[in-house]
Design brief:
Layout: H1 2-17, E1 26-32, E2 37-40, E3 56-59, E4 64-66, H2 75-84, E5 90-94, H3 97-105, H4 114-117, H5 132-136, H6 139-150, E6 161-164, E7 168-173, H7 176-199, H8 207-217
Antiparallel strand pairs: 1-2, 1-5, 2-3, 3-4, 5-7, 6-7
Length: about 230
Amino acid sequence: MKELKRKVLEANLALVREGLVFYTWGNASGIDRERGLVVIKPSGVPYDKMTEEDLVVLDMDGRVVEGKLRPSSDTPTHLALYKAFPQIGGIVHTHSTYATAWAQAGRDLPCLGTTHADYFHGPVPCTDNLTQEQLAGDYEWSVGEVIAGRFSGLDPVQTPAVLVRNHGPFTWGADPAEAAYHAKVLEEVAQMAFLTLQLNPSATCDPALEARHFFRKHGPGATYGQKK
């Protein structure tokens, strides 16, 4: 697990470097699919004091198998998403300013230009409110279920982000580093969209242009970058 711990620690620290988290507002995790184990940030531990030894290893039922500290309070959400989206290998949660503002407004983040379209296929969806029963029950697990439900009919690989209503963003990727990368991109396009709608409240983007840019970078016909 040493390599996965290194990647999870680096993803958590990247959130600080990119200005996406303050104090202890956020977390990153990664999963070893073969072993069915998840590594996640410990709850309430400042980023500047965190080491690989502080990270918590859990099984898919949330039982701690390694680590002396309590795992992030968002752990059940991470586990629910790993179960719902078997394609993903890392998850990040932040309260970054602009993405969280869209979540608090209860609005999907629309695609208004090619920067968004390069990374997210269509709008970044915002979830519904949790029910009173969900709030009173296993709240964090229910957040994951609400996210998974919002993605019914959507591809979580093509849209690797969600806005949890009145809460904030979750992003994911093939590994923890990509999940953190998507968190930064999400914050940037959330700010761009906010500013765009201030200048032109009726701004839109041609769906054909959106698709052209997304599939230029993703899928078997991608032409962006160098051959692998």
